[in-house]
Write a sequence for this structure.
């Protein structure tokens, strides 16, 4: 093999390696963008919890693989209507029994998760599974669950309980297949502001929030 041939072979090898490196970087960038888009705030949260970006992304990919093996299914229209009515009833009970209503809200969200096919045994596993399709509302769920735990021992204020209802509703609406909540309470939500003509009564009944 001549010197000129060796040079050309070396050039070809360098080009192939460079193209492979570029392809790898492009694929990694695309994967990173897809994971950011799919997991939303959960991407940054996982990144902060892991030792490296690579480890964080592997964790998120593992979540995707796990959820892909689950039988996650939408609710049929009749079940959606039933759950929507039950949620309204829970909200209405908030005025007179806020702690009890928050506990009911937690149970109702868990029940909807189970009917849609999510395993519900362990809270952290629930959060992990939900992150694949509901990453944008996970912080709502975490905060609501934390407040709900304190409500059991009566260590949550009425305002915190109100916030828990708003947080639970964000995930509940997504699980039902409705538009995600933007965090603002609807005007007829007893767990938030009432209609203008009810505002004074609501504030008195709920301790002034």
């Amino acid at each position: 093999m001549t010197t000129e041939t060796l040079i050309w072979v070396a050039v070809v090898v360098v080009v192939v390696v460079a193209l492979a490196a570029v392809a790898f970087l492009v694929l990694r960038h695309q994967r990173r963008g897809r994971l950011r888009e799919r997991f939303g705030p959960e991407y940054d949260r996982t990144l902060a919890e892991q030792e490296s970006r690579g480890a964080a992304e592997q964790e998120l990919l593992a979540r995707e693989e796990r959820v892909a093996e689950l039988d996650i299914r939408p609710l049929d229209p009749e079940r959606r209507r039933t759950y929507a009515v039950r949620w309204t009833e829970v909200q209405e009970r908030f005025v007179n029994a806020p702690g009890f209503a928050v506990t009911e809200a937690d149970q109702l969200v868990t029940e909807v998760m189970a009917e849609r096919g999510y395993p519900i045994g362990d809270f952290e596993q629930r959060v992990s599974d939900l992150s694949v399709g509901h990453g944008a509302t996970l912080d709502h769920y975490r905060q609501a669950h934390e407040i709900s735990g304190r409500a059991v021992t009566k260590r949550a204020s009425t305002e915190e309980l109100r916030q828990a209802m708003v947080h639970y509703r964000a995930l509940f609406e997504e699980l039902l297949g409705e538009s995600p909540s933007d965090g603002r309470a609807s005007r007829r939500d007893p767990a938030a502001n009432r209609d203008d003509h009810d505002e004074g009564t609501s504030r008195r009944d709920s301790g002034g929030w």
